[in-house]
Amino acid sequence: MVEFDGVGLRYGPDAEVLCDISFNLQPGSFYFLTGPSGAGKTSLLKMLYLAQRPSRGIVRLFGEDLVNMPRQRLPGFRRRIGVVFQDFRLIPHLSARDNIALPLRIAGVSEEDLSGPVGEMLSWIGLGDRADARPATLSGGEQQRVAIARAVIARPQLLVADEPTGNVDPEMAMRLLGLFEALNRLGTTVVVATHDIHLISRIENAQMMRLEKGRLADPTGALRYPPANRA
Amino acid sequence: MIIPRVPIQHRRLLPDRRLSGPTPWVIAILMMLTLLAAAAGVGLARSANAIGSAIAGRVTVQIVTPNPVTRAEQAAALRRAAAAQPFVLSARAVDREELQATLGQWFGSADGDDPVLNSLPLPALVDIDFVGENRSRHMEQLRALVAAEAPGARIIPHAEWLGPVAQLIASLAWIAGGLVLLMTLASAAVVIMTARAALGTHFATIEMLHLIGATDRQITRLFQRRIAIDTGYGIALGSVVAAAILLLIGWQWAGITSGLAATASLGPTGWALLLALPLLAIALAALTARQTLLAALKKIL
């Protein structure tokens, strides 16, 4: 699904923020990405959701080399990835409904085909009665739910979430995690960056990826060579 | 397509307000000036052409023989002889009344009754139009004819004294054309700045659209459509004002029926060009916006 091999990332002439990152994410697996602030979690996620190319190394996604891929082919790959941003990145002049519908519209889904799933998603995140509200009139938690709904509405093959439960109450956090788990059971590979230890303990069979000072801790080699891939 | 089709739901991805601030007003002013310069250029070019073709093959033979009877006889003989030549299209002796009427405009009496005017020893004039383009050979033939029929008469080619005027008018037409080109470039520059400003203002939205899989083409069409509509308003406004000014000038011009000014008009081709300019301007704006946007988006991963 996702393969990083000897990946390094630097911004401009500065030292590398990520160094020698190697891992292999299995299809249908659930991963938590942890590490202290400044360890490089967001930079790693950026490479996962194709907002950044590595400075060195190999990145393969869905079986294709992304480092040398022409940029005009990237949109097709991005449509297979759902992203929950830490700062939500909702489009401010669009309603909650339109923000959630955005990935489907970009993918060319007709209005009649998308109205059902969008309505269901709005109900599920508890915002059925606020479908026409603009992000500025929603609370932080409500905005986060809209951002999550937008990330999952198109049933992505890879879901990348950066602190997805940081602004919601514990009950909603559990519901959202349940949604991620349900998607994961349907085959979506999920990568969640979080500091929340309780969240991590809630998902059985989830694997941990820990970043420290730009390096990935993988003492047993299980991330690089998952059991299913071991020779 | 000048204004690309974008589904209504996609149009909402950009805010409802106009993207470009004062751009429509700037475009309106540039469009008005462009149309006025183009109209001036077309009118001047047509005038220069009309004058040029009118004077190119025309000469006036001025007979200044002191004896008025001999002068009149020589003029009549020259007219007859010239009219019989194959290189002459037409030959016409200018009536004394016509000469007096022309001179009367300067002497203060246009009806020819002025005693001073009547006492003037006016030369006899014969206007001759040549056939074809071989002017220098025709001039040689005419000189021989004049030497035989009216010795001592002067041959005055019209191109000698009206030629510089025609050249000046043609130069002004070229300058007007240059102004049209410069203002077109200025309009394109305004559109480029508008497109870049729009990209800067909406960068967060563009980045978001990219990350959920929007193609450069999808994003470009959104902005191209909006910029084309915004500049279209400016072009329409500028065109209406320019049309009003041109109609007003045309109405005043209609009263001028003589002299060089009477040769200036737009003609069907000129009007067609003026009508085509706003459409070309919208197409140029849309194309410029598209290329600017695509080039800018390529810098984003």
General shape of chain B = elongated
Order of helices and strands of chain A: EEEHEEHEHHHEHEHEE
| Biggest sheet overview of chain B | 4 strands, antiparallel
Question: What string, H for helix and E for strand, traces the elements of chain B in order?
Answer: HHEHEHHEHEHHHH
Rounded mean pLDDT score of chain B: 84
Number of helices of chain A: 7
Structure report:
The complex is a heterodimer of chains A (231) and B (301). Chain A has 231 residues and is of the alpha/beta class. Chain A has one domain (28-52, 71-211): Rossmann fold (3-Layer(aba) Sandwich). Chain A is built from seven helices and ten strands. Chain B is an alpha+beta fold. Chain B has two domains: 8-52 and 163-300, no CATH class; 65-152, no CATH class. Helices cover 69% and strands 8% of the residues of chain B. A four-stranded antiparallel β-sheet of chain B has the order 2-3-1-4. Chain B is elongated and about 100 Å long. Classes of the chains: A alpha/beta (231), B alpha+beta (301). The A-B interface holds A 49-53, 71-72, 74-76, 78-79, 83, 89, 91, 93-94, 98, 101-103, 105-107, 111, 150 and B 7, 9-10, 12-13, 15-16, 204-205, 207-216, 218, 298, 301.
Name a few traits of the molecule.
heterodimer, A: 231 residues, alpha/beta, Rossmann fold, six-stranded mixed sheet, 7 helices, 23% strand, B: 301 residues, alpha+beta, 4 strands
Brief characterization of the structure:
The complex is a heterodimer of chains A (231) and B (301). Helix content of chain A is 32%, strand content 23%.
SSE arrangement:
The complex is a heterodimer of chains A (231) and B (301).
Chain A: E1 2-9, E2 18-25, E3 30-34, H1 41-48, E4 56-61, E5 64-65, H2 74-78, E6 81-84, H3 96-106, H4 111-124, H5 140-152, E7 158-162, H6 170-185, E8 189-193, H7 197-202, E9 207-212, E10 215-217
Parallel strand pairs in A: 3-8, 3-9, 6-7, 7-8
Antiparallel strand pairs in A: 1-2, 1-4, 4-5, 9-10
Helix pairs in contact in A: 3-4, 3-5
Chain B: H1 8-11, H2 23-56, E1 58-63, H3 68-83, E2 88-94, H4 96-107, H5 115-119, E3 124-130, H6 135-149, E4 154-157, H7 158-201, H8 203-211, H9 216-253, H10 267-297
Antiparallel strand pairs in B: 1-3, 1-4, 2-3
